[in-house]
Structures are given as structure tokens and as C-alpha cells.
Design goal:
Number of strands: 10
CATH class of the largest domain: Mainly Beta
Cofactor: Cu cation
Helix content: 25-40%
Membrane topology: Multi-pass membrane protein
Order of helices and strands: HHEEEEEEEEEEH
Distance between the termini: 34 Å
Organism: Hyporhamphus intermedius
Structural class: alpha+beta
GO cellular component, one term: mitochondrial inner membrane
GO molecular function: copper ion binding; cytochrome-c oxidase activity; oxidoreductase activity
CATH architecture of the largest domain: Sandwich
Strand order of the largest sheet: 3-2-1-5-8
Radius of gyration: 24 Å
Strand content: 25-35%
Length: 231
């Protein structure tokens, strides 16, 4: 989760988020170089005493300021397109979970290895156990196995929502009447927090998303208990 006074992104918990962080750093370095060059040109033009009122154009400069931006755009576009394709790839998922947005909570359906579902509500502040996070903790977490490709089908029952977990590099719109899909792999065990990222009404900020990644053996025990509870 994010912490107070944090300047950067959350630590990556999936391969896609690591790629996004690398691309962010790559683009930021290009922005710094462009900013330094523009600042240098502005200072040089303001401070110089050289003037020539008879220069109307310069073929060399025209070529440079046309070709150089084109090269910079290519250096940004190619890694960006690569990550876009990686984010859209869904190859042979080990588990499919359906996430449905409601006003104002999420519900999850597991139908692959077991047949159960549950609603996930935010834990009210006055009921929070010590050490849990206000506005981020849910009574039921979406539990997934570590190092397994997970597909999430995202939709909504009433209005637009958005299922987003920053540390996993996921943000998928939940649209009524439409089934969107996204995928992720949790690289390490942990609890990862997110929130609805589409303004959906009065309690938009009170429908958190909590993904808990656990070892496969723990996940199998959890599914057995949840299925028994469903019965």
C-alpha cells in the first residue's frame, strides 16, 4: 500500500507492474533531458549578444528539430507498445475470478475449482482491528495463489466502477452489461490494496479492493473452507 509522503509508485508485486515502473523511469529520463536542453536554449538565447536580423530560416536547424523529436517519440512509443501487448496477453490462466461492482461493494465468484462467491465490504473504522488500514480493509479478501496466472472478469451491476490494484499494475473498468477481462501474476505473497477508480456515487471512496496472495497449499485449504461455508 502507499504510505504518507510517498513520492514514487508502490513496490511492484507483479511482472507487469515491474515493466511499468521501468517504462516510467525510462520516460522520466527522456523528459529530464528534454527539459535541460530547452532550458539551456532559452538561457543561451536570452543572454547572447549576437543578433542577425537577416536570417529568415535555417535548413540545418529545421532538419534537427524535425528528426530529433521523431527519434524521441520512437524511443518512447516502442517500449510503450510492448507493455500494452503484455498487459493484454492472457495465456492459459490457472484460475478465473469474476469481480462484480455494486453500489458500494465488490462481489467475487470462484467457479473453476470450487463453486462459491462472496461479497466484500469495507470494514468500518470503528470495527478495525489494530494494525489494519482505514478505508482500505475489507471483511472478505480476494485470495489468489502466488506465481499463478490469474484472469479476472470484471463487470458491474448498476453503474460504472473500476477494479484497480496499483501494486499489481491492474486497472480495469467495470461496465454494466459488459464483461471485461484482465490478468496478473502475484510475484510474492502479500496483501495488496486497491480502490474503485471510477466515480460511482456517494460512497465511491468506501469500496476497497483487497487481494491476498498466498502459497498454493494455503489457497487450496481456503477454497475448501469457503466452499464448506457456502454449503
Amino acid at each position: 500500500m502507499a504510505h504518507p509522503a510517498q513520492l514514487g509508485f508502490q513496490d511492484a508485486a507483479s511482472p507487469v507492474m515491474e515493466e511499468l515502473l521501468h517504462f516510467h523511469d525510462h520516460a522520466l529520463m527522456i523528459v529530464f533531458l528534454i527539459s535541460a536542453l530547452v532550458l539551456y536554449i532559452i538561457v543561451a538565447m536570452v543572454t547572447t549578444k549576437l543578433t542577425n536580423k537577416f536570417i529568415l530560416d535555417s535548413q540545418e536547424i529545421e532538419i534537427i528539430w524535425t528528426v530529433l523529436p521523431a527519434i524521441i517519440l520512437i524511443l518512447i512509443a516502442l517500449p510503450s507498445l510492448r507493455i500494452l501487448y503484455l498487459m493484454d496477453e492472457i495465456n492459459d490462466p490457472h484460475l478465473t475470478i469474476k469481480a462484480v461492482g455494486h453500489q458500494w461493494y465488490w462481489s467475487y465468484e470462484y467457479t473453476d475449482y470450487a463453486d462459491f462467491g462472496f461479497d466484500s465490504y469495507m470494514v468500518p473504522t470503528q470495527q478495525l482491528p489494530s494494525g489494519q488500514f482505514r478505508l482500505l480493509e475489507a471483511d472478505y479478501r480476494m485470495v489468489v495463489p502466488v506465481a499463478s496466472p490469474i484472469r479476472v472478469l470484471v463487470t458491474a451491476e448498476d453503474v460504472l466502477h473500476s477494479w484497480a490494484v496499483p501494486s499489481l499494475g491492474i486497472k480495469m473498468d467495470a461496465v454494466p452489461g459488459r464483461l471485461n477481462q484482465t490478468a496478473f501474476i502475484a510475484s510474492r505473497p502479500g496483501v495488496f490494496y486497491g480502490q474503485c477508480s471510477e466515480i460511482c456515487g456517494a460512497n465511491h471512496s468506501f469500496m476497497p479492493i483487497v487481494v491476498e496472495a498466498v502459497p498454493l497449499s494455503h489457497f487450496e485449504v481456503w477454497t475448501t473452507l469457503m466452499e464448506a461455508e457456502e454449503l
